[in-house]
Design a protein that fits this description.
The chain is mostly helical. It contains six helices and four strands; from the N terminus they run ααβααββααβ.
Length: 229
């Protein structure tokens, strides 16, 4: 037998074997399921379809690609990496010294104190511990004019809350001060700033409160020392 004939036979055998292998791989083993419960019925054997050939071809192709990658003949396609979020998950901490709504410890609220009553008001509301002659001395008006303008008589007992009209003319006929000041004063029982102002005659309650860092409604303590301007 010649050399060419032997080569031709080898090629033919190789082609036949290759075709047989493809046919076997493309025809998966399928278990027959009877389609009828009738006794003696012959179960139908499903035939390979184009889909089964495509699936077999895909399997063969996958095996080839894996083998070729292992031998270094081809390289794998790069795997897409999902984009990472650039948003930081670290909690934001306010910088040191940032302003807050919490008052600083050790701070003292500012107390707004009244100032002296300027000039002569048109009216004045009588407070506990005050009387018309005290008001006449404070605003430098004639006490008789004050009583007459308000329809009052001397020695009449007046209740706190009474609104007095203040004369806009005249002056007090004698020394307005009952006790000298500036001076220090020791608070007695039931004293108020208004009562202490009347004790000194021409002293103004607002001025006493302002000089001592108080308000007109600040409770006084027996034995407390006040400065009378």
């Amino acid at each position: 037998m010649s050399k060419k004939v032997i080569i031709a036979l080898i090629i033919a055998v190789t082609i036949v074997l290759a075709f047989s292998a493809c046919t076997r791989s493309a025809s998966p083993n399928i278990i027959s399921v009877p389609t009828s419960t009738t006794q003696g019925a012959i179960p139908a054997t499903p035939q390979p379809t184009d889909l089964s050939l495509v699936q077999a071809w895909g399997t063969s192709t996958a095996i080839y690609v894996q083998t070729a990658q292992a031998m270094g003949l081809i390289t794998a396609a790069p795997t897409a990496v999902p984009p990472q979020s650039t948003e930081s998950t670290t909690p934001v901490i306010p910088p040191t010294g940032a302003p807050t709504n919490t008052p600083l410890p050790g701070t003292t609220p500012v107390v707004v104190v009244p100032t002296a009553t300027p000039g002569r008001p048109a009216t004045y509301t009588l407070q506990a511990g005050e009387f018309p002659y005290c008001i006449a001395r404070r605003f430098n008006v004639d006490p008789d004019n004050l009583l007459s303008l308000n329809g009052l008589s001397s020695g009449q007992i007046l209740q706190p809350g009474l609104v007095l009209k203040i004369p806009q003319t005249g002056s007090y006929p004698a020394n307005r001060a009952l006790n000298a000041h500036p001076a220090n004063y020791t608070v007695a029982v039931d004293d108020t700033i208004y009562r202490i102002a009347c004790h000194f005659g021409d002293a103004d309650p607002n001025s006493i409160a302002a000089a001592n860092g108080l308000t007109l409604i600040t409770p006084l303590t027996t034995g407390q020392i006040l400065y009378i301007p």
